[in-house]
Design a protein that fits this description.
With 290 residues, the protein is an all-alpha fold. The chain has helices spanning 3-16, 23-34, 38-59, 61-87, 104-130, 137-155, 170-179, 189-199, 204-214, 216-228, 239-260, 269-289. 72% of the residues lie in helices and 0% in strands.
């Protein structure tokens, strides 16, 4: 893979990776058109996702900072409760226990932790079964088609008002299992997580913010996972070009999020679904032509 192609893919990932239309799917599609092999595309996509993660971190830095504070507060509360139990073992009625997970961001932590664990488990299972076909244009076609159907269905579901204070254990389970299929090209983890959020009855506003935060752990987890499995093959691009590509992906992603986030509600799902349907048609044509 040449450096120019990699930088073009970086810009493409920056645009499509922060939208619920599968950045990985677009990278595979364009790479196939340009004649890049699937194994190289998979390694390149994992690297470029770091730029997408950087864009999400920048866009939602305030939410992430509050989540970190909530995590520190949770550890403090747990330690306080342990001390109260130890000091009042003989008179438990005088113990002053603090209620855990009493604020929205600590509940968001539960949602992120459980869904990340299930996303990782489901993603590893999907990769073990279908990983050899991750660079396949036919898998990409299937992913785009599923993503299109998911987005169109989301656009026609009822609107609910549940927020972070209403999070239950089943919610991160559903979201995590849905998001696990995002390891395959064309299957947008953002679209799948959004559909799971709507299925759980969460409000449009909470779902939009939540799904972006939920994409961060799988990005870094997948990088570690593929590195440990020895699947991060060299794709002929120097380290400086890789760094530049991540910066381009991040910069383009930040601009795309700034311009599009407010329009990424339920009503936009139909338009995005139609777009993914078109991407599926193009993928199928490329499959037959190639």
């Amino acid at each position: 893979m040449s450096g120019i192609i990699f930088l073009v893919l970086a810009a493409l990932q920056g645009i499509t990776g922060v939208l619920p239309i599968s950045g990985f799917g677009h990278v595979v599609l364009i790479s196939t058109i340009l004649g890049v092999s699937g194994s190289l595309t998979k390694s390149a996509a994992v690297i470029l996702h770091l730029g997408t993660a950087a864009a999400v971190i920048y866009q939602f830095r305030k939410d992430l900072l509050k989540t970190v504070y909530a995590l520190a507060g949770l550890f403090t509360d747990i330690w306080h409760n342990i001390l109260q139990w130890f000091l009042h073992r003989t008179d438990p009625e005088n113990a002053d226990y603090v209620r855990l997970f009493s604020d929205n961001y600590s509940r968001l932590l539960v949602l992120m932790a459980v869904s990340t664990a299930l996303t990782g488990g489901a993603g590893c299972l999907v990769d073990l079964i279908f990983g050899d076909y991750a660079g396949s244009i036919l898998v990409t076609f299937t992913g785009f088609l599923v993503t299109a159907l998911v987005l169109i269905v989301c656009a026609n579901t009822l609107s609910y008002k549940r927020g972070p204070k209403d999070v239950e254990l089943k919610d991160p389970v559903i979201i995590g299992l849905f998001q696990g299929f995002g390891v395959l090209p064309g299957f947008s983890s953002l679209a799948l997580a959004r559909s799971a959020g709507y299925l759980c009855g969460f409000s449009d506003r909470f779902t939009r913010r939540c799904v972006y935060l939920l994409t961060l752990p799988p990005v870094f987890g997948s990088l570690i996972y593929f590195a440990l499995r020895g699947e991060m093959v060299s794709f002929g691009v120097s380290v400086p070009i890789c760094i530049l590509a991540v910066i381009i992906s991040a910069a383009v992603g930040i601009v795309t999020l700034k311009l599009s986030f407010r329009q990424m509600g339920r009503r936009s799902s139909r338009r995005l679904g139609i777009y993914c349907l078109g991407a599926a048609v193009v993928s199928l044509l490329v499959y037959f032509i190639k």
